[in-house]
Amino acid sequence: MVKLTQQRQSILDLINASNRHWDADEVARALSDAGQAVGIATVYRGLAALEAAGLLDSIQLADKKRYERADKAHHDHMICTECGLIEEFTRETIEVLQLAAAKERGFELSGHQLTMFGRCKKCSLEKV
Amino acid sequence: MVKLTQQRQSILDLINASNRHWDADEVARALSDAGQAVGIATVYRGLAALEAAGLLDSIQLADKKRYERADKAHHDHMICTECGLIEEFTRETIEVLQLAAAKERGFELSGHQLTMFGRCKKCSLEKV
DNA sequence: GAAGGGAATGATAATCATTATCGTTATCAT
DNA sequence: ATGATAACGATAATGATTATCATTCCCTTC
What residue ranges do the domains of chain B occupy? Predict the structure, then answer.
């Protein structure tokens, strides 16, 4: 049985108190700064356990994985390749079409990730 | 100016002659087996250059990047978490909705990746 | 047809996120 | 108290990718 230890509670509280997308290192650093230092290996294990328990969501980026609160409606991401901004968006219809495509192929869907890349509004305006 | 060297041509030919999704290591190994060994660093650089030139497409998986031919219609991927099978599918409507969502936020889209995870038909049937 | 410059190559070291290892510690039921 | 089980934390290991750097290739120009 998975345990919600003190360390995991700290990780969860930290992420739940924000709207950011955290990577393991940022979590470790933030907890350390808050005087609740948690070993980096424990952070990795904690994040994975919390995600498996449905208490956190994650997106896999090219270089690393980032975690966010799970208590929000499902959404996908739009990432600015210029400034790193991560915006969220939802399109119910896309979800429906995905399910249909999966069913069509006899695929038993367990998850998906839709990520769009480009330049956010701000960056598009700033640099020609 | 980017050059289409002998090595890059070999990489391109190899991938174009298949429908697979190759990672750098597989490419290096295959070329080596074919008697056209290419340094692993060169393979990485070649793949990146060919993709930048629009001659190859790629999908970023959790652990590594995989390359495929670019001379096919745009499509997304469905990956079996059991056997690793990568199936392709297309849903024109999804593309349209993505563009709409981007425009709505002033996002200047440069690319996207939609990947679905689950168990393929075969694996769903085999193991309960 | 030699000389010089830009790009690519290849061997290898370095980087960086993540996972494995392992002895120690906390927690909970008997 | 006694185990049993899960987690912790420090650190080593892994694995994909990138950086370094001396060498080589390919043009273009003289």
Answer: 6-69, 76-126
